[in-house]
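Record 1 of the preview.
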Amino acid sequence: MSQGHRNQISDTNVQSSDAVALKNALQAIVDEFGVDKNDIGKLLQGISAGQKVVDDIQQPKLHKDKELIYDDPSCYIYRRNNTKNKYWYYRHYDKDTRQRYVKSLATTDHTVAVTAARVIYQQVKSKVLQGHKLKNISTPELINLFLKREQLKISDIPKQGITPKVYKTKVITCRYWQWFIDDLKYTKTAIDQIPLSKVRDFGYWLMRLPKISASSNNTPRSPEVVNNCITTIMQMYRDVAVRDGYISSDKVPVIDKLSQKNDGTLKRDILTLEQYDKLWRWMQYKYCKESDIDDRERQKRVIFSKLVGVLSNTGLRSSELLGLKVNDVYPNPLDKDKDTDNMLVRVTPSNSKTGVGRTLVAPIKKRIVAIKEAYAELGMHSSPNDYLFRSTQGRGKVKSFSRETLANRFKQVLQSSGLQDEIDAEGMIINLYSLRHQYISWRIRYGNVPLPLLSRAVGNSVQVLMQKYAHIQVESQADVLTKAQGFLKMSETDLSTNLYNSDDDYNG
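->
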Protein backbone atom coordinates (compact mmCIF):
# COMPACT_ATOMS: atom_id res chain seq x y z
CA MET A 1 0.00 0.00 0.00
CA SER A 2 1.34 3.42 -0.96
CA GLN A 3 2.12 6.12 1.60
CA GLY A 4 -0.47 8.44 0.02
CA HIS A 5 -3.18 5.81 0.30
CA ARG A 6 -2.26 5.15 3.95
CA ASN A 7 -2.48 8.91 4.70
CA GLN A 8 -5.89 9.10 3.05
CA ILE A 9 -7.20 6.24 5.18
CA SER A 10 -5.69 7.91 8.25
CA ASP A 11 -7.43 11.21 7.48
CA THR A 12 -10.72 9.41 7.00
CA ASN A 13 -10.31 7.69 10.38
CA VAL A 14 -9.59 11.04 12.07
CA GLN A 15 -12.69 12.57 10.50
CA SER A 16 -14.73 9.60 11.65
CA SER A 17 -13.36 9.97 15.18
CA ASP A 18 -14.19 13.68 15.19
CA ALA A 19 -17.72 12.98 14.02
CA VAL A 20 -18.20 10.39 16.79
CA ALA A 21 -16.80 12.81 19.38
CA LEU A 22 -19.13 15.61 18.19
CA LYS A 23 -22.12 13.26 18.30
CA ASN A 24 -21.26 12.17 21.84
CA ALA A 25 -20.82 15.82 22.95
CA LEU A 26 -24.22 16.83 21.56
CA GLN A 27 -25.86 13.83 23.21
CA ALA A 28 -24.25 14.82 26.53
CA ILE A 29 -25.76 18.33 26.17
CA VAL A 30 -29.19 16.87 25.51
CA ASP A 31 -28.93 14.57 28.52
CA GLU A 32 -27.44 17.16 30.92
CA PHE A 33 -29.65 20.16 30.11
CA GLY A 34 -32.72 18.46 28.79
CA VAL A 35 -32.44 20.22 25.44
CA ASP A 36 -34.67 18.91 22.71
CA LYS A 37 -32.82 17.56 19.71
CA ASN A 38 -34.81 19.89 17.44
CA ASP A 39 -33.47 22.94 19.33
CA ILE A 40 -29.84 22.06 18.75
CA GLY A 41 -29.76 24.21 15.57
CA LYS A 42 -31.11 27.26 17.39
CA LEU A 43 -28.53 26.72 20.13
CA LEU A 44 -25.69 26.78 17.59
CA GLN A 45 -27.06 29.99 16.00
CA GLY A 46 -27.07 31.64 19.38
CA ILE A 47 -23.46 30.67 19.98
CA SER A 48 -22.48 32.12 16.58
CA ALA A 49 -24.27 35.43 17.28
CA GLY A 50 -22.60 35.68 20.66
CA GLN A 51 -19.19 35.15 19.11
CA LYS A 52 -19.87 37.93 16.61
CA VAL A 53 -20.62 40.36 19.44
CA VAL A 54 -17.39 39.38 21.10
CA ASP A 55 -15.48 39.92 17.85
CA ASP A 56 -17.02 43.38 17.42
CA ILE A 57 -15.95 44.34 20.93
CA GLN A 58 -12.43 43.08 20.41
CA GLN A 59 -12.14 44.72 16.92
CA PRO A 60 -13.85 48.16 16.91
CA LYS A 61 -15.72 49.09 13.71
CA LEU A 62 -14.15 51.45 11.18
CA HIS A 63 -16.93 53.98 11.57
CA LYS A 64 -17.54 55.73 14.86
CA ASP A 65 -19.75 58.61 15.99
CA LYS A 66 -22.24 57.77 13.26
CA GLU A 67 -25.08 60.27 12.83
CA LEU A 68 -27.93 59.97 10.34
CA ILE A 69 -28.70 62.82 7.94
CA TYR A 70 -32.38 63.78 7.89
CA ASP A 71 -33.06 60.48 9.74
CA ASP A 72 -32.37 58.64 6.50
CA PRO A 73 -30.76 55.25 7.29
CA SER A 74 -29.15 55.23 3.84
CA CYS A 75 -26.72 58.03 4.68
CA TYR A 76 -24.82 59.29 7.66
CA ILE A 77 -21.71 61.15 8.75
CA TYR A 78 -18.98 59.45 10.72
CA ARG A 79 -15.37 59.56 11.78
CA ARG A 80 -12.83 56.88 11.07
CA ASN A 81 -11.08 54.77 13.63
CA ASN A 82 -8.08 53.96 11.49
CA THR A 83 -6.82 57.51 10.94
CA LYS A 84 -5.20 60.04 13.28
CA ASN A 85 -7.18 62.96 11.91
CA LYS A 86 -10.63 63.55 13.29
CA TYR A 87 -12.25 64.52 9.97
CA TRP A 88 -15.91 63.83 9.41
CA TYR A 89 -16.94 61.74 6.40
CA TYR A 90 -20.17 61.43 4.45
CA ARG A 91 -21.50 58.03 3.36
CA HIS A 92 -24.50 57.31 1.15
CA TYR A 93 -25.75 53.93 -0.04
CA ASP A 94 -28.63 53.44 -2.46
CA LYS A 95 -30.02 49.94 -2.03
CA ASP A 96 -31.97 49.98 -5.30
CA THR A 97 -28.96 50.69 -7.53
CA ARG A 98 -26.42 49.28 -5.03
CA GLN A 99 -24.29 52.37 -5.49
CA ARG A 100 -22.09 53.67 -2.68
CA TYR A 101 -20.86 57.25 -2.31
CA VAL A 102 -18.22 58.25 0.25
CA LYS A 103 -16.65 61.68 0.60
CA SER A 104 -14.38 63.36 3.12
CA LEU A 105 -15.91 66.55 4.51
CA ALA A 106 -12.42 67.85 5.41
CA THR A 107 -13.55 69.29 8.73
CA THR A 108 -13.38 68.33 12.39
CA ASP A 109 -16.25 70.66 13.32
CA HIS A 110 -19.49 68.77 13.87
CA THR A 111 -21.80 71.64 12.87
CA VAL A 112 -19.88 72.31 9.66
CA ALA A 113 -19.93 68.61 8.86
CA VAL A 114 -23.70 68.32 9.29
CA THR A 115 -24.32 71.40 7.14
CA ALA A 116 -22.04 70.14 4.35
CA ALA A 117 -23.57 66.67 4.54
CA ARG A 118 -27.08 68.05 4.07
CA VAL A 119 -25.99 69.91 0.94
CA ILE A 120 -24.36 66.76 -0.44
CA TYR A 121 -27.42 64.75 0.51
CA GLN A 122 -29.66 66.86 -1.72
CA GLN A 123 -27.19 66.56 -4.62
CA VAL A 124 -26.87 62.80 -4.24
CA LYS A 125 -30.61 62.28 -3.96
CA SER A 126 -31.11 64.33 -7.09
CA LYS A 127 -28.59 62.17 -8.94
CA VAL A 128 -30.34 58.99 -7.82
CA LEU A 129 -33.76 60.26 -8.92
CA GLN A 130 -32.38 61.25 -12.33
CA GLY A 131 -30.72 57.87 -12.81
CA HIS A 132 -27.19 59.25 -12.57
CA LYS A 133 -24.25 57.42 -11.10
CA LEU A 134 -23.14 58.32 -7.61
CA LYS A 135 -19.51 57.66 -8.43
CA ASN A 136 -17.67 60.63 -9.88
CA ILE A 137 -14.97 60.21 -12.49
CA SER A 138 -11.95 62.32 -13.34
CA THR A 139 -10.95 63.53 -16.81
CA PRO A 140 -8.41 60.70 -17.36
CA GLU A 141 -11.09 58.14 -16.46
CA LEU A 142 -13.57 59.78 -18.85
CA ILE A 143 -11.04 59.78 -21.69
CA ASN A 144 -10.26 56.12 -21.06
CA LEU A 145 -13.95 55.16 -21.24
CA PHE A 146 -14.47 57.24 -24.40
CA LEU A 147 -11.49 55.82 -26.31
CA LYS A 148 -12.41 52.24 -25.38
CA ARG A 149 -15.85 52.74 -26.94
CA GLU A 150 -14.49 54.53 -30.00
CA GLN A 151 -12.01 51.71 -30.55
CA LEU A 152 -14.93 49.29 -30.83
CA LYS A 153 -16.29 51.37 -33.73
CA ILE A 154 -13.20 50.92 -35.94
CA SER A 155 -14.22 49.50 -39.31
CA ASP A 156 -12.72 49.29 -42.77
CA ILE A 157 -16.11 50.10 -44.28
CA PRO A 158 -16.93 53.86 -44.26
CA LYS A 159 -20.16 54.95 -42.61
CA GLN A 160 -20.30 51.67 -40.69
CA GLY A 161 -17.91 52.87 -38.03
CA ILE A 162 -14.76 54.94 -37.91
CA THR A 163 -11.49 54.39 -39.73
CA PRO A 164 -8.22 53.74 -37.85
CA LYS A 165 -7.10 57.21 -38.96
CA VAL A 166 -10.19 58.84 -37.43
CA TYR A 167 -9.62 56.91 -34.19
CA LYS A 168 -6.00 58.09 -34.10
CA THR A 169 -7.21 61.67 -34.52
CA LYS A 170 -9.58 61.22 -31.56
CA VAL A 171 -6.71 59.87 -29.45
CA ILE A 172 -4.62 62.96 -30.26
CA THR A 173 -7.55 65.27 -29.49
CA CYS A 174 -8.09 63.60 -26.10
CA ARG A 175 -4.38 64.02 -25.38
CA TYR A 176 -4.71 67.76 -26.01
CA TRP A 177 -7.73 67.93 -23.69
CA GLN A 178 -5.84 66.08 -20.95
CA TRP A 179 -2.91 68.50 -21.25
CA PHE A 180 -5.34 71.40 -21.02
CA ILE A 181 -6.98 69.99 -17.87
CA ASP A 182 -3.54 69.33 -16.39
CA ASP A 183 -2.59 72.96 -16.99
CA LEU A 184 -5.71 74.01 -15.10
CA LYS A 185 -4.71 71.76 -12.15
CA TYR A 186 -7.92 69.72 -12.42
CA THR A 187 -6.37 66.35 -13.26
CA LYS A 188 -7.82 64.53 -10.24
CA THR A 189 -10.95 66.66 -9.96
CA ALA A 190 -14.31 65.03 -10.70
CA ILE A 191 -15.61 66.20 -14.08
CA ASP A 192 -18.79 67.59 -12.54
CA GLN A 193 -16.73 69.73 -10.18
CA ILE A 194 -14.66 71.51 -12.86
CA PRO A 195 -16.04 75.04 -13.38
CA LEU A 196 -17.44 75.37 -16.89
CA SER A 197 -16.08 78.91 -17.13
CA LYS A 198 -12.54 77.54 -16.83
CA VAL A 199 -12.69 75.34 -19.94
CA ARG A 200 -14.48 77.54 -22.48
CA ASP A 201 -11.16 78.90 -23.87
CA PHE A 202 -9.75 75.49 -24.82
CA GLY A 203 -9.80 76.43 -28.52
CA TYR A 204 -7.58 79.48 -28.02
CA TRP A 205 -5.25 77.45 -25.81
CA LEU A 206 -4.92 74.81 -28.54
CA MET A 207 -4.19 77.44 -31.20
CA ARG A 208 -1.19 78.60 -29.14
CA LEU A 209 0.03 75.05 -28.42
CA PRO A 210 3.14 74.28 -30.54
CA LYS A 211 2.88 71.34 -32.92
CA ILE A 212 4.95 68.28 -32.07
CA SER A 213 4.98 66.75 -35.56
CA ALA A 214 8.28 66.94 -37.42
CA SER A 215 6.45 67.73 -40.66
CA SER A 216 4.42 70.62 -39.24
CA ASN A 217 6.85 73.32 -40.45
CA ASN A 218 5.74 75.43 -37.48
CA THR A 219 2.53 76.32 -39.32
CA PRO A 220 -0.35 77.22 -36.99
CA ARG A 221 -3.38 74.99 -36.68
CA SER A 222 -6.31 76.04 -38.76
CA PRO A 223 -9.54 77.13 -37.05
CA GLU A 224 -11.22 74.18 -38.76
CA VAL A 225 -8.85 71.68 -37.10
CA VAL A 226 -9.31 73.30 -33.69
CA ASN A 227 -13.09 73.34 -34.05
CA ASN A 228 -13.08 69.67 -35.01
CA CYS A 229 -11.18 68.96 -31.78
CA ILE A 230 -13.79 70.90 -29.81
CA THR A 231 -16.57 68.90 -31.45
CA THR A 232 -14.85 65.64 -30.43
CA ILE A 233 -14.47 66.78 -26.82
CA MET A 234 -18.13 67.75 -26.54
CA GLN A 235 -19.09 64.43 -28.15
CA MET A 236 -17.08 62.63 -25.46
CA TYR A 237 -19.01 64.34 -22.68
CA ARG A 238 -22.41 63.75 -24.31
CA ASP A 239 -21.84 60.13 -25.40
CA VAL A 240 -20.14 58.93 -22.22
CA ALA A 241 -20.46 61.31 -19.28
CA VAL A 242 -24.13 62.20 -19.86
CA ARG A 243 -25.42 58.94 -21.33
CA ASP A 244 -23.76 56.87 -18.61
CA GLY A 245 -25.12 59.10 -15.88
CA TYR A 246 -21.93 60.69 -14.55
CA ILE A 247 -23.14 64.25 -15.22
CA SER A 248 -26.30 65.99 -16.34
CA SER A 249 -26.54 67.62 -19.77
CA ASP A 250 -26.10 71.10 -18.26
CA LYS A 251 -22.61 70.06 -17.11
CA VAL A 252 -21.33 69.45 -20.65
CA PRO A 253 -18.53 71.98 -21.36
CA VAL A 254 -19.52 74.80 -23.68
CA ILE A 255 -16.28 75.56 -25.52
CA ASP A 256 -15.96 78.64 -27.69
CA LYS A 257 -15.32 77.72 -31.30
CA LEU A 258 -13.03 79.81 -33.46
CA SER A 259 -14.40 81.87 -36.29
CA GLN A 260 -13.85 80.41 -39.76
CA LYS A 261 -13.79 82.42 -42.95
CA ASN A 262 -16.07 80.93 -45.55
CA ASP A 263 -15.88 83.04 -48.66
CA GLY A 264 -16.56 80.22 -51.10
CA THR A 265 -12.94 79.93 -52.23
CA LEU A 266 -10.94 76.74 -52.38
CA LYS A 267 -9.39 75.55 -49.16
CA ARG A 268 -6.47 74.03 -51.04
CA ASP A 269 -4.19 75.42 -53.69
CA ILE A 270 -3.82 73.83 -57.12
CA LEU A 271 -1.19 73.93 -59.83
CA THR A 272 -1.68 76.17 -62.82
CA LEU A 273 -1.78 74.66 -66.30
CA GLU A 274 1.78 75.81 -66.88
CA GLN A 275 3.01 74.35 -63.58
CA TYR A 276 1.33 71.01 -64.16
CA ASP A 277 2.74 70.85 -67.69
CA LYS A 278 6.20 71.52 -66.29
CA LEU A 279 5.72 68.77 -63.68
CA TRP A 280 4.48 66.24 -66.26
CA ARG A 281 7.31 66.93 -68.70
CA TRP A 282 9.96 66.74 -66.01
CA MET A 283 8.66 63.37 -64.75
CA GLN A 284 8.35 62.04 -68.32
CA TYR A 285 11.69 63.09 -69.73
CA LYS A 286 13.95 63.57 -66.72
CA TYR A 287 12.68 61.79 -63.60
CA CYS A 288 12.05 58.44 -65.28
CA LYS A 289 15.10 58.56 -67.56
CA GLU A 290 17.95 59.57 -65.29
CA SER A 291 21.10 57.64 -66.14
CA ASP A 292 22.44 57.19 -62.62
CA ILE A 293 19.55 55.08 -61.26
CA ASP A 294 19.12 51.29 -61.40
CA ASP A 295 16.34 49.53 -63.30
CA ARG A 296 14.32 48.85 -60.15
CA GLU A 297 14.24 52.52 -59.16
CA ARG A 298 13.41 53.44 -62.75
CA GLN A 299 10.30 51.23 -62.79
CA LYS A 300 9.24 52.61 -59.42
CA ARG A 301 9.47 56.11 -60.87
CA VAL A 302 7.42 55.09 -63.89
CA ILE A 303 4.72 53.70 -61.61
CA PHE A 304 4.68 56.86 -59.52
CA SER A 305 4.55 59.23 -62.51
CA LYS A 306 1.60 57.29 -63.93
CA LEU A 307 -0.04 57.35 -60.51
CA VAL A 308 0.13 61.17 -60.52
CA GLY A 309 -1.43 61.11 -63.99
CA VAL A 310 -4.28 58.83 -62.84
CA LEU A 311 -5.00 61.06 -59.84
CA SER A 312 -5.04 64.17 -62.03
CA ASN A 313 -7.45 62.59 -64.50
CA THR A 314 -9.89 60.91 -62.12
CA GLY A 315 -10.24 63.21 -59.12
CA LEU A 316 -9.95 60.20 -56.83
CA ARG A 317 -8.96 60.68 -53.23
CA SER A 318 -5.52 59.19 -52.62
CA SER A 319 -7.04 56.62 -50.23
CA GLU A 320 -9.54 55.60 -52.92
CA LEU A 321 -6.80 55.30 -55.54
CA LEU A 322 -4.69 53.07 -53.30
CA GLY A 323 -7.73 50.89 -52.59
CA LEU A 324 -8.35 50.16 -56.29
CA LYS A 325 -7.98 46.57 -57.44
CA VAL A 326 -6.80 45.70 -60.95
CA ASN A 327 -10.31 44.60 -61.94
CA ASP A 328 -11.77 47.93 -60.76
CA VAL A 329 -10.40 49.60 -63.90
CA TYR A 330 -11.89 48.19 -67.12
CA PRO A 331 -13.09 49.17 -70.63
CA ASN A 332 -16.59 50.50 -71.14
CA PRO A 333 -18.59 47.66 -72.79
CA LEU A 334 -20.78 50.28 -74.52
CA ASP A 335 -17.80 52.07 -76.08
CA LYS A 336 -17.84 51.56 -79.85
CA ASP A 337 -14.37 53.08 -80.29
CA LYS A 338 -12.00 50.24 -79.46
CA ASP A 339 -8.99 52.57 -79.69
CA THR A 340 -10.28 54.98 -77.06
CA ASP A 341 -8.13 55.79 -74.06
CA ASN A 342 -11.17 55.98 -71.81
CA MET A 343 -11.57 53.46 -69.01
CA LEU A 344 -14.24 52.96 -66.38
CA VAL A 345 -13.09 53.21 -62.77
CA ARG A 346 -15.18 51.50 -60.10
CA VAL A 347 -14.97 52.79 -56.53
CA THR A 348 -16.60 50.20 -54.28
CA PRO A 349 -18.57 51.20 -51.13
CA SER A 350 -15.84 49.76 -48.91
CA ASN A 351 -13.24 51.86 -50.74
CA SER A 352 -15.25 55.09 -50.79
CA LYS A 353 -14.89 57.76 -48.12
CA THR A 354 -18.64 58.27 -48.12
CA GLY A 355 -19.52 54.56 -48.08
CA VAL A 356 -21.37 54.98 -51.40
CA GLY A 357 -19.96 53.28 -54.47
CA ARG A 358 -19.61 55.07 -57.78
CA THR A 359 -18.23 54.62 -61.29
CA LEU A 360 -16.41 57.26 -63.30
CA VAL A 361 -14.74 57.44 -66.69
CA ALA A 362 -11.25 58.78 -67.43
CA PRO A 363 -8.66 58.71 -70.25
CA ILE A 364 -6.14 56.53 -68.42
CA LYS A 365 -5.84 53.34 -70.51
CA LYS A 366 -2.24 54.00 -71.62
CA ARG A 367 -1.22 54.81 -68.07
CA ILE A 368 -2.76 51.58 -66.75
CA VAL A 369 -0.92 49.55 -69.39
CA ALA A 370 2.37 51.27 -68.49
CA ILE A 371 1.78 50.57 -64.79
CA LYS A 372 1.21 46.85 -65.40
CA GLU A 373 4.31 46.64 -67.59
CA ALA A 374 6.44 48.35 -64.93
CA TYR A 375 5.27 45.87 -62.29
CA ALA A 376 6.02 43.00 -64.67
CA GLU A 377 9.58 44.34 -65.06
CA LEU A 378 9.84 44.12 -61.28
CA GLY A 379 8.66 40.52 -61.35
CA MET A 380 5.21 41.44 -60.00
CA HIS A 381 2.54 40.33 -62.45
CA SER A 382 -0.91 41.80 -61.89
CA SER A 383 -3.83 39.52 -61.01
CA PRO A 384 -7.44 40.80 -61.07
CA ASN A 385 -7.72 40.94 -57.26
CA ASP A 386 -4.32 42.55 -56.70
CA TYR A 387 -4.08 46.17 -55.72
CA LEU A 388 -3.48 48.31 -58.78
CA PHE A 389 -0.75 50.16 -56.91
CA ARG A 390 1.17 47.64 -54.84
CA SER A 391 4.15 48.10 -52.60
CA THR A 392 7.41 47.39 -54.41
CA GLN A 393 9.21 46.35 -51.25
CA GLY A 394 10.26 42.84 -52.17
CA ARG A 395 8.84 40.52 -54.80
CA GLY A 396 5.36 39.10 -54.84
CA LYS A 397 3.96 41.56 -52.34
CA VAL A 398 0.23 42.34 -52.63
CA LYS A 399 0.15 45.10 -50.04
CA SER A 400 -1.02 48.53 -51.17
CA PHE A 401 1.24 51.56 -51.04
CA SER A 402 0.88 53.68 -47.94
CA ARG A 403 -0.20 57.29 -48.35
CA GLU A 404 2.84 58.36 -46.37
CA THR A 405 5.15 56.71 -48.90
CA LEU A 406 3.45 58.45 -51.81
CA ALA A 407 3.30 61.80 -50.00
CA ASN A 408 7.03 61.72 -49.30
CA ARG A 409 7.88 60.83 -52.91
CA PHE A 410 5.62 63.63 -54.19
CA LYS A 411 7.49 66.12 -51.99
CA GLN A 412 10.78 64.90 -53.44
CA VAL A 413 9.43 65.27 -56.99
CA LEU A 414 8.25 68.84 -56.38
CA GLN A 415 11.63 69.78 -54.94
CA SER A 416 13.72 68.07 -57.63
CA SER A 417 11.64 69.56 -60.45
CA GLY A 418 12.12 73.09 -59.11
CA LEU A 419 8.36 73.57 -58.64
CA GLN A 420 8.59 73.71 -54.87
CA ASP A 421 10.48 77.02 -55.05
CA GLU A 422 7.69 78.49 -57.20
CA ILE A 423 5.05 77.11 -54.86
CA ASP A 424 6.77 78.54 -51.78
CA ALA A 425 7.25 81.93 -53.48
CA GLU A 426 3.51 82.10 -54.14
CA GLY A 427 2.67 81.00 -50.61
CA MET A 428 0.87 77.89 -51.81
CA ILE A 429 0.56 74.44 -50.26
CA ILE A 430 0.54 71.61 -52.79
CA ASN A 431 0.23 67.90 -51.99
CA LEU A 432 -1.31 64.80 -53.52
CA TYR A 433 -4.79 65.84 -52.40
CA SER A 434 -4.37 69.03 -54.40
CA LEU A 435 -4.60 66.93 -57.55
CA ARG A 436 -8.22 66.08 -56.72
CA HIS A 437 -9.10 69.76 -56.38
CA GLN A 438 -7.18 70.41 -59.57
CA TYR A 439 -9.31 67.84 -61.41
CA ILE A 440 -12.59 69.29 -60.14
CA SER A 441 -11.55 72.87 -60.89
CA TRP A 442 -10.39 72.07 -64.40
CA ARG A 443 -13.50 70.00 -65.21
CA ILE A 444 -15.62 73.01 -64.32
CA ARG A 445 -13.38 75.68 -65.82
CA TYR A 446 -12.25 73.97 -69.03
CA GLY A 447 -14.66 71.07 -69.44
CA ASN A 448 -17.84 72.90 -68.47
CA VAL A 449 -19.04 69.68 -66.78
CA PRO A 450 -22.46 70.06 -65.09
CA LEU A 451 -22.17 69.96 -61.32
CA PRO A 452 -24.68 67.10 -60.81
CA LEU A 453 -22.66 64.86 -63.14
CA LEU A 454 -19.37 65.95 -61.60
CA SER A 455 -20.66 65.33 -58.07
CA ARG A 456 -21.41 61.68 -58.93
CA ALA A 457 -17.95 61.25 -60.46
CA VAL A 458 -15.99 62.62 -57.50
CA GLY A 459 -18.24 61.45 -54.65
CA ASN A 460 -19.23 64.89 -53.35
CA SER A 461 -22.66 66.44 -53.06
CA VAL A 462 -23.71 69.20 -55.43
CA GLN A 463 -24.04 71.46 -52.38
CA VAL A 464 -20.38 70.95 -51.48
CA LEU A 465 -19.26 71.62 -55.04
CA MET A 466 -21.41 74.75 -55.19
CA GLN A 467 -19.89 76.01 -51.96
CA LYS A 468 -16.28 75.40 -52.90
CA TYR A 469 -16.23 75.84 -56.67
CA ALA A 470 -19.06 78.22 -57.49
CA HIS A 471 -16.65 81.05 -58.36
CA ILE A 472 -14.99 78.83 -60.97
CA GLN A 473 -18.39 78.04 -62.48
CA VAL A 474 -19.08 81.76 -62.75
CA GLU A 475 -15.78 82.24 -64.59
CA SER A 476 -16.52 79.42 -67.03
CA GLN A 477 -20.06 80.66 -67.68
CA ALA A 478 -19.18 84.31 -68.16
CA ASP A 479 -20.54 84.35 -71.72
CA VAL A 480 -23.85 82.97 -70.53
CA LEU A 481 -24.13 85.44 -67.67
CA THR A 482 -23.38 88.41 -69.90
CA LYS A 483 -25.55 87.32 -72.80
CA ALA A 484 -28.03 89.97 -74.01
CA GLN A 485 -26.53 92.69 -71.88
CA GLY A 486 -25.63 94.61 -75.06
CA PHE A 487 -29.10 96.09 -75.41
CA LEU A 488 -28.64 97.76 -72.03
CA LYS A 489 -25.83 99.83 -73.52
CA MET A 490 -28.25 101.04 -76.16
CA SER A 491 -30.36 102.58 -73.44
CA GLU A 492 -27.22 104.03 -71.83
CA THR A 493 -27.64 101.92 -68.68
CA ASP A 494 -24.31 101.34 -66.95
CA LEU A 495 -24.37 98.45 -64.49
CA SER A 496 -20.85 99.22 -63.33
CA THR A 497 -22.08 102.20 -61.32
CA ASN A 498 -24.74 102.54 -58.67
CA LEU A 499 -28.22 103.19 -59.96
CA TYR A 500 -28.78 105.52 -57.03
CA ASN A 501 -26.29 108.21 -56.03
CA SER A 502 -27.37 108.53 -52.45
CA ASP A 503 -29.57 107.09 -49.79
CA ASP A 504 -31.90 110.04 -50.28
CA ASP A 505 -32.39 109.13 -53.93
CA TYR A 506 -33.10 105.54 -52.99
CA ASN A 507 -35.54 106.49 -50.28
CA GLY A 508 -37.59 108.58 -52.63
